[in-house]
Amino acid sequence: MMIFEFNLSDNISYQYRGINKILKKDNLNDILNLLANKILRNGVDQNGYTLIYSYEIKVVNWEYKAYLSYLLSVGFLERDYYLNTEDNKKPYGYRFTEKMKEIIELSGIIYRPNQNESKKKIQKHDKNVSISSDVFDRLKKDFLGAEIIYNLKNGQIEKTKDEWGNFYKIEKWLHNNVELNKWKKGYVSFSWSSERLYTNFVRLSSNIRANNIQLNGEKIVEFDVKSSFPLMLAMYCLNKTPEIIDDYDFKNYCTAVINGTFYNELMSGLNDNRNSTKGDMESDLSTRLLSKKEAKTLFQMYLNGNNNKVHYLNGVSCDINSYMEYKYPSIHQVLVQLKDEGKKPYDELVQLETKLIFEIIEELYDSFSDIKILTCHDAIYVPKSFEVRTRAIWDKHMNNIKSILPVEHEIELDYSNLESLGIFCDDDDDWD
């Protein structure tokens, strides 16, 4: 459990039902902590609310009504009836207001671990790890030597907004504060699972990694595989079915992936399909436009889900299976066959991704004895001073992949001789 110390005033004078109350900072913190921990544990619904029963608030503060009234009246919290419950009760859901999320700051965090929680979970190299022991051990040493630049007294970590830029993602901000706090206090994790390396570093948001973690006293630089899963899917299809290289839809797919337009095209295509029957019903939220981030999530659901299932995301439906079958039939068929064999596309693609990343890491370690590296699935991070040298090796591996995949080439036509053939002329003909 986390105990957040919010920057609030103490001994606040507040009129509640005609009686002047003096509100204590600690009691306000108790209610805000309840909401914060609920958000971390249970998440929020599509409107940002988290379910909290009144008896839960009463447990942390038996005089909660005056304190809750204050937090609602000054615009720190909002509440509404929470409908996603299995019982017939009508409890409230609570959320931080945008005003509160913008000004909220932490003065400290106290972590209370579970009774059986181990402070250090450091895995040794064994037969389940598919990379060499030398690389594994060196990565472990680099991770344990990483420097955490996190001090709430010197400044707050960055808050980010949702994919539309409208709402602060307070749950992400709380999560990142928790993870940085635990890591700095010595609660470390370094383990291998499902062909991926999981560490405290992995559990941070990308912007928090870049701004709060250093190697060799330097800022770190990220190198990531663009459109990793679409790219790995192309490689898998080519390995599994070499003749697919001549299929037009496969070339079209590879061109979009290599050019970095795949997710944009997927988003546009899905939105066109979903809104084709909307007509004049602009209030129909079930056919609202999908964001690029939602298109990425739907692609993950397509890879791992049922071939015949219409997927639901954030309250709307989307038949990405039909779209992919129509747009990229040869790729879709490879995935159908893979799933029919009882295999999981996710596992197959992660293996390819991991193989690529660790081939690059091994070459970097062999080339530079003093380089330090942190990993996050499809990305690596190195000290700023190694950026140029890392770029050369990284680009070499990326270009090797691109050279294998087929792309569509625009045909350039020479129009210089068309006039002499009488096809084009300068006469002002009347075409009426």
Draw up the topology in text.
Elements: E1 2-6, E2 12-16, E3 19-23, H1 25-42, E4 50-52, H2 54-60, H3 64-73, E5 77-81, E6 92-96, H4 98-103, E7 106-111, E8 120-122, H5 133-144, E9 147-148, H6 170-184, E10 188-193, E11 196-199, H7 206-212, E12 213-215, E13 218-224, H8 228-240, H9 248-259, H10 262-275, H11 292-304, E14 311-313, E15 316-318, H12 320-327, H13 329-340, H14 345-367, E16 374-376, E17 379-383, H15 387-404
Parallel strand pairs: 8-10
Antiparallel strand pairs: 1-7, 2-3, 4-6, 5-6, 9-12, 10-11, 12-13, 13-17, 14-15, 16-17
Helix pairs in contact: 8-14, 10-11, 12-13, 14-15
Tell me what the structure shows.
The chain has 432 residues and is α+β, with helices and mostly antiparallel strands. The protein has three domains: 2-108, Orthogonal Bundle (Arc Repressor Mutant, subunit A); 113-215, no CATH class; 229-276 and 288-346, no CATH class. It is 44% helix and 17% strand. The chain is built from 15 helices and 17 strands. It has helices at 25-42, 54-60, 64-73, 98-103, 133-144, 170-184, 206-212, 228-240, 248-259, 262-275, 292-304, 320-327, 329-340, 345-367, 387-404; strands spanning 2-6, 12-16, 19-23, 50-52, 77-81, 92-96, 106-111, 120-122, 147-148, 188-193, 196-199, 213-215, 218-224, 311-313, 316-318, 374-376, 379-383. The strands form six sheets. Strands 9-12-13-17-16 form a five-stranded antiparallel β-sheet. The protein has a three-stranded antiparallel β-sheet with strand order 4-6-5. A three-stranded mixed β-sheet has the order 8-10-11. A hairpin with a 2-residue loop joins strand 2 and strand 3 (19-23). Residues 278-285 and 427-432 have low confidence and may be disordered.
